[in-house]
Specification:
Homotetramer. The protein has 268 residues and is of the alpha/beta class. The chain contains ten helices and eleven strands. The structure holds NADPH dihydro-nicotinamide-adenine-dinucleotide phosphate (NDP) and the ligand O=C(O)C1=N[C@H](C(=O)O)C[C@H](O)C1.
Length: 268
């Protein structure tokens, strides 16, 4: 059987370039397309050369319809508005859409849900094995500890990140809320500034640090009178996200339409 053809969106981005390298190194997939915005200086160039290496025979395009039509999977780490458009095109092509994009609002999620009626979509705010294990641990610890243990999710990222809290922080917050038998919407504290008043019992708070080239660090802190328990994940290399995304693209090849996440892919 032919190896699945993969299209990478936002190919010049931090994750885009990492994904290109990961797919090129894989013996299980073929890179068949690379999409960028019309304004990108990479448009019309050979992708390998644009990345500073040898030609690889893939020309960067701003025409997603043509690129996605020949793909079995689209790996997409771009922006919420772009991702919604790619979801529609991937659904039309019946290609697996792997979504790493974060900062998605309810209106984006509704459109992704609609697209998933036609093809498989794997979406996760973090595609690494470590974070997806941490999600399960967080759910268990939150279930074991009562609501006299305050939960804070503290995340740190590079200074180019545009959304907060991070997608990972929200996954961890959701897991803590689930462990307590609620949804995060029920328990989430508003961002703190000024005279905030004392903390409401049972709530889940978020703090975001932005600086330098931090790849991604997440602490889930359970704080009680006299003791604290901290679960931590530290990413030092974006390759962990790219490997997870490629694994999801391959996993999705024999799946029917629907929304999936990395717990499905990893069998967690
Ligand atoms: N789920 C996970 O495991 C991970 C998720 N992420 C998420 O992935 C996303 C991207 O992160 P990162 O790579 O650091 O960001 P970058 O800004 O480096 O890359 C995004 C790329 O997408 C391009 N892009 C934006 N809109 C379009 C469009 N309409 N068509 C084609 N290309 C487009 C951008 O182009 P331009 O520069 O011209 O805007 C840019 O090249 C973020 O939401 C981030 O949070 C990141 C790491 C891991
Ligand atoms: O923007 C990033 O860089 C990252 N984004 C994801 C998130 O929002 O959690 C995953 C990872 O932490 C890196």
């Amino acid at each position: 059987m032919e190896k699945p053809g993969i299209v990478i969106t936002g190919a010049s981005g931090r994750m885009g370039q990492m994904l290109v390298r990961t797919v090129m190194e894989s013996d299980q997939a073929r890179l068949v397309g690379a999409i960028e915005r019309q304004v990108s200086p990479w448009i019309g160039r050979d992708l390998g050369e644009a990345m500073g290496g040898a030609a690889i025979g893939v020309t960067v395009t701003d025409d997603p319809i043509e690129a996605i039509a020949k793909a079995q999977a689209v790996i997409d780490f771009t922006s919420p508005a772009a991702t919604v458009g790619f979801a529609e095109l991937a659904a039309q092509a019946r290609a697996v859409h792997v979504i790493g994009t974060t900062g998605l609002e309810p209106e984006h999620l509704a459109k992704i849900k609609a697209a998933a009626r036609h093809a498989p979509i794997v979406r996760a705010g973090n595609m690494s094995l470590g974070v997806n294990l941490l999600v399960g641990l967080t759910r268990k610890v939150a279930a074991a500890l009562g609501d006299d243990w305050d939960v804070e999710v503290v995340e740190a990222h590079h200074n180019r990140k545009v959304d907060a809290p991070s997608g990972t922080a929200l996954m961890l917050g959701e897991a803590a809320a689930e462990g307590r038998g609620h949804s995060l919407d029920d328990l989430r504290t508003p961002a703190r500034e000024g005279i905030t008043g004392a903390r409401e019992k049972g709530t889940i708070g978020f703090s975001a640090i932005r600086g330098g080239d931090i790849v991604g660090e997440h602490d889930v802190m359970f704080a009680s009178a006299g003791e604290r328990l901290i679960l931590r994940h530290v990413a030092t290399d974006r390759a962990i996200f790219a490997r997870g995304a490629l694994r999801a693209a391959l996993w999705g090849q024999d799946k029917g339409p629907g929304e999936y996440d990395m717990a499905d892919v990893l069998g967690l």
